[in-house]
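The instructor's notes for this session suggest beginning with a concrete chain rather than abstract definitions. Hand out the sequence below and ask the class to guess, before any prediction is shown, which regions might be ordered.
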Amino acid sequence: MQYSLNIILNTLLMLVSSAVIGWFINNLTATLLFFVSFSFLRVCSGGFHLRTATACNIVTTLLCVLIPFFLHFSGSKLLLINATSLIIMIFFAPNPDKNAQIPLHWYPGLKAASIAIVSLNFFIGSSVFGLAFLVQSLTVIPWRRRY
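After discussion, reveal the predicted structure:
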């Protein structure tokens, strides 16, 4: 129960801090779109976790605020970003947290959902979604061996 409560409170803290900073820099919509799309894909695909909740809060907030503020892509660059995210999801998703205890028979569905979410941006063509999906897809790659 404490684990679940910590997840909810950390998510709320990241959302509120991202929204406040996004509002101050006049980029609230893009910040919230990045946060929601990043989080939605993360639920399905899993991914790397930082060692502490504080580090997670700071890094996630900075990503949600800074990436959509400074980076905008379209055309072939956005297509490349979407394709890269899709390929990573095909090969590595899902990569859930060991504490999630997701049954193995859910993995194909989670993979399909992750692929579908990323694929939607080929039709939507959003730079914010594309960058959020790319950042999230990079967290799914198992950079270290698991023992």
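Then share the key points. The chain has a mean pLDDT of 93. Residues 2-140 form one domain.
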